[in-house]
Design a protein that fits this description.
This protein is mainly β. It has one domain (2-74). The protein is 0% helix and 39% strand. The chain has strands at 2-4, 24-26, 29-32, 37-41, 44-50, 53-56, 67-71. It has a three-stranded antiparallel β-sheet, with no helix packed on it. Strands 1-2 form a two-stranded parallel ribbon. A two-stranded antiparallel sheet has the order 3-6. It is elongated, with a radius of gyration of 19 Å.
Length: 80
């Protein structure tokens, strides 16, 4: 198992011979780009594109402040 930027993750070790399962633990995720997501407020739809984060540990509270916002009038929505 790999833990990257997880608080309270187990220490890295190479197998059961060293006292546990095979874990690789990275203290902070060097670069991460979260997935875009859609929000709606007052019948207005917005595409939120989170900004890249460096050396991230744990979760990002309130992604609304850490994302670029694109009005849905500027978004192409594909259909069949």
């Amino acid at each position: 198992m790999v833990f990257s930027g997880c608080k309270n993750a187990p220490k890295s070790n190479c197998g059961k011979a060293s006292g546990g399962g095979p874990f690789t633990t990275i203290d902070a995720t060097p670069v991460i780009a979260e997935k875009p997501y859609i929000t709606e407020q007052d019948d207005k739809w917005t595409l939120n594109i989170p900004k890249y984060e460096l050396n991230k540990v744990g979760v990002t509270p309130n992604n609304f402040q850490n994302s670029d916002k694109v009005d849905f009038s500027q978004v192409f929505v594909a259909t069949e």
